[in-house]
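Anyone up for a design puzzle?
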């Protein structure tokens, strides 16, 4: 049995992950949320914990006994949330972490799209970049995901770039990012201590199609 803790389990990418893992009899899910009423459905293989990620003591209790932690978090304090996650996982002795951040945190998005992306969310990216620094400075077995602009297409296709490579594409489906997360959960040695850009192939352009 693989025990998976999902932080921010009512997030839109996390919903795909929870639904997919609900079909696996060898997975036990713990869904950590601040407001349990926002969870549309709790699968049979899941339990719910109501807590704030910034409450490191409560988070540590939730992490104990887990095999993998997947963080689907956001906010202008995401660097502080990352610090709390690292502290809790270190204390609980759980090393494997999947953490979703954002594209552009390394200045890795080239050309006109990179300039547009920086104009749109450049200020917000600073705190996401700090979160990445926290994770990369830790001794955790982390995978950072940096999705392109997200849409709700029924499209599981994706391609990845690694830190140090120019980002590709402009969009990716939440479903595709969720599928990648499940693939890592199913094979935890994949993408160890890596930061991955994630996009839908053949979506290069000056900005996302829906903007």
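Challenge accepted. My sequence:
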């Amino acid at each position: 049995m693989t025990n998976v803790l999902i932080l921010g389990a009512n997030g839109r990418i996390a919903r795909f992950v929870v639904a997919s893992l609900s079909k696996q009899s060898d997975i036990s899910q713990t869904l950590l949320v601040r407001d349990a009423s926002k969870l549309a459905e709790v699968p049979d293989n899941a339990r719910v914990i109501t807590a704030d990620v910034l409450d490191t003591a409560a988070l540590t209790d939730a992490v104990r006994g887990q095999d993998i932690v997947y963080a689907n978090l956001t906010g202008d304090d995401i660097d502080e949330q990352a610090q709390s996650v690292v502290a809790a996982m270190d204390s609980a002795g759980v090393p494997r972490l999947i953490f979703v951040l954002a594209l552009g945190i390394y200045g890795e998005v080239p050309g006109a799209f990179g300039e547009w992306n920086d104009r749109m969310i450049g200020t917000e990216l600073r705190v996401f970049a700090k979160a990445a620094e926290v994770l990369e400075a830790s001794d955790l077995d982390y995978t950072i995901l940096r999705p392109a602009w997200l849409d709700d297409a029924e499209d599981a296709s994706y391609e990845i770039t690694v830190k140090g490579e120019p980002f590709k594409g402009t969009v990716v489906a939440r479903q595709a990012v969720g599928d990648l997360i499940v693939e890592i959960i199913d094979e935890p040695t994949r993408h160890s201590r890596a930061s991955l850009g994630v996009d839908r192939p053949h979506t290069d352009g000056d900005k996302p199609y829906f903007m």
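A detail worth pointing out: The mean pLDDT is 97.
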